[in-house]
Design a protein that fits this description.
308 residues, 9 strands, single chain, alpha/beta, three-stranded mixed beta sheet
């Protein structure tokens, strides 16, 4: 039997009335050139329309694959896991999904049982999550599943698998980091009470940060409204029409004639020049620019800081 680190098996099957067919490919190799072999099971599905085959689905359509090949369940379970059974980005992806998936969904994804899920659920960080994975000996559990899949794939391909991997999806903790975490464990850092206390503190901080953000946003909006109101009131008090005037806060610019429609009053260049020469800016924003029309150059007058 030939030995290789590149196992590929292909099989096709029709449904009973020959109106649908599927081509399935199972592989265990380093197709992505990332230093370790990965499992993958994908397909291309066809349906017959008006006597002709047309492609109707493909990729990792695992429900369709299992409809035709229920015996390939183990390859679906290990899809994108490495030859040791470790998930893609084991720690990062696992910790991310831990707080977003329901229990049953996570157990199916992470290939763990409910007891293990409850242990993993207390993880406060990716490092802590990794420590629990090692404590639960999940890598050994995953390796056992991967070895079963390898045997099945070897039987299908009639080839012997030998890994040439130089790394794995799962990286164990460095001895020093592990020792520090174990010391914290012995000191009660991860006790139920301390975990609850830190969780509440984190919740309180999140709540405070949100409240501070709301207040800051409210202040920003009210400040902008106050500036706009002062601008509008200034020009109304000086008998200058404001229906075709707009204030751009991001550039600190008051623009006249920003609308070209005849339905809006239009300021002439002479009126604009007269305004720049006579305007007093004691109620306008500091550094404000006056502009006539969107395409004309800025004309800037002497400016003062706005009064509150």
């Amino acid at each position: 039997m030939k030995t290789t680190n590149n196992l590929i098996y292909k099989e096709s099957k029709y449904n009973e009335d020959k109106t649908e067919k599927i081509n399935v490919e199972i592989r265990l190799n380093d197709e992505c050139k990332n230093g370790h072999e990965d499992f993958a099971i994908t397909c291309t599905g066809y349906e017959k329309y008006n006597g002709r085959w047309q492609e109707s689905y493909g990729g990792s359509a695992h429900e369709q694959i299992l409809k035709f090949f229920p015996e390939f369940q183990i390859f679906v379970d290990l899809h994108l896991s490495d030859a040791k059974g470790a998930h893609m980005y084991t720690t990062a992806n696992g910790f991310y999904h831990l707080s977003r998936m329901e229990e049953q969904q996570f157990c199916e994804y992470f290939r763990c049982n409910k007891r293990q899920y409850k242990e993993l659920k207390i993880a406060e960080s990716e490092t802590h999550f990794t420590l629990i994975i090692e404590y639960l000996q999940l890598p050994k559990q995953w390796l056992k599943q991967a070895n079963q899949a390898i045997k099945q794939l070897e039987k299908l391909t009639k080839k012997k698998f030998k890994s040439a991997a130089v790394k794995s999806n799962f990286k164990s903790l460095d001895p020093g980091v592990k020792e520090d975490l174990k010391q914290k464990l012995d000191d009660g850092y991860f006790s139920t009470e301390n975990l609850a206390e830190r969780k509440q503190a984190k919740k309180d901080k999140s709540k405070k940060d949100l409240k501070d953000s709301i207040k800051a946003q409210y202040k920003k909006q009210t400040d902008e409204l106050r500036v706009k109101a002062n601008i509008d009131l200034y020009f109304v008090n000086n008998d200058i029409k404001i229906d075709n005037m707009i204030y751009y806060s991001h550039t600190n610019t008051i623009c006249f004639n920003w609308q070209t429609s005849e339905y809006y009053s239009q300021m002439t260049e002479k009126q604009f020049d007269d305004l720049c020469n006579t305007i007093t800016l004691d109620h306008l924003p500091e550094g404000v620019k006056l502009q006539l029309g969107k395409d004309k150059a800025f004309k800037t007058a002497k400016v003062f800081k706005i009064n509150s």
